[in-house]
Amino acid sequence: AIKEGFRIMIITGGKSEGVRESFTRLRATAFYDSVSDKSSKLDELIAGGLDPTRTAYMGDDLPDLRVMQRVALPCCPFDAAEEIKAISRFVSAKNGGHGCVRDLLEQALKVQGKWLTEGAHHW
Q: How far is CA 113 from the centre of its chain?
C-alpha cells in the first residue's frame, strides 16, 4: 500500500515501543501514540494537508467515533463496538489485531487496480 502511494497513519491512545517498532518497520507514514483526543489529532492532520474526503479510518471503540464521523470511509474490525459497526462503511471479517487493516488495504488496492502491480513482488 505504501509503495502504491497510500499514506498510512497510526493514531492510538496506547503506548508501546513494540507497536511503534512494528509500524516503523512496515514504513507507516506517521505514528502517533498516547493520543487522548483523536478528533483533535485529526484537526492537526487536516491543518497539515490531510483531506478527510479522501481518508479511510479504522477504529474499534468509542474514542474513534467522532473521527469516523468526519472521514469518507469509516471502517472497523469485526469485533468493534456495536456503535462503531453501525457507522462503518466497511466492516472487516477479521478481528482487531488479526489482519483487519491488511483486509482493508487489500480491498482498497484491488478496487483501485493496484493489487498485483510490479511492486507487489518484492519487499
A: 20
DSSP 31: E
**Amino acid residing at 60:** D
10 forms beta bridges with: 31
44-87 pLDDT, tens per residue?
999 999 999 999 999 999 999 999 999 999 999 999 999 999 99
Single-letter amino acid, residue 68: M
Q: How many Å is the Cα radius of gyration of the chain?
A: 14
C-alpha cell recorded at residue 20: 511503534
Which cell numbers hold the place of 47? Answer: 491543518
Single pTM value for the model: 0.86
Grid cell for residue 5: 502511494
What span, in angstroms and rounded, lies between the C-alpha atoms of 26 and 123? 10
Q: Do 29 and 2 touch, CB atoms closer than 8 A?
A: yes
